[in-house]
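Repro:
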Amino acid sequence: MIIITGGAGFIGSAMLWELNRKGEENIIVVDDLGSTTTEKWRNLSGLHFADFIPKELFPDLLERNALEGISAIIHMGANSSTTETDADQLLVNNFGYSKKIASFCMARDVQLIYASSAATYGDGSNGYSDSIEGLAALRPLNMYGYSKHLFDRWAVKHHILNHAAGLKFFNVYGPNEYHKGDMSSVIYKAFNQIGEKGALNLFQSHRPDYRDGEQLRDFVYVRDCTKIMVWMLENPSVAGLFNVGSGTPRSFNDLAAATFSALDRQPVINYVPMPDTLQNKYQYYTCADITKLRLAGFSETLTSIEQGIKEYVQRYLASADPYLDYRKPIPKT
């Protein structure tokens, strides 16, 4: 039995899809579907799983040892809003909840793969190395990043990462992110903006060393994330913190060009001023150092933004049914 917390969310439902593709259906989904206005439930409509447990009931079931035969917990559930202002809620949901799951896994020798975040790196001034030794120097820029960083440090202190894998996801994009609102990827927002206005707005640069639209990010396709997690399930001895990104920084201009190309349209880009409230928190460069992941043995080729955006736009966003469905043929990349 595999449990996926946040299994109806973006990366969680994509992982469920990946496991379904491999014939695995003995899976429990743990999540909160929220209101019907978000339509988060639709992420599950084309997928198979054995049971669904509301997230508020899950910790008690673990404490009472009411779930048997668990081989792995893939812990993707969290409040992922980088603009969340309720710090106490983030501590309860992202830190306290994760501690309960990790403690259960360590006590019962259950494999644990959990979501950390590249938000833990803050402004990047201390680099993007996923080494344990560098954790103490990191200074996240928002409470969401701090809640993830807090758990990473707790996991090190209690030797959890000697047996579990924590994944620092960079800028993930792809199908089943539609319920995320403001936290959805730039690609999803770009597709909608181009469809509505015929043009795309990008932030101007407020630094002389970056031209407008040349700010750099590590964009990673969600199918690459799920491939990495499946590989980790198949190699349970792999443990520690790992960056999950493409390892190649690309500009917002590159992203725009790929999106317009996927729509078979000529680029029309407007560069707009960055809000004053964002300027001091804005990252001009992120890039996952994936050396540790490669040294651990993951050798598959990762998807370029041109490939990923083309598939995402043409196969999903421009489709009448944009949701992941394990019965659909596997796309070729």
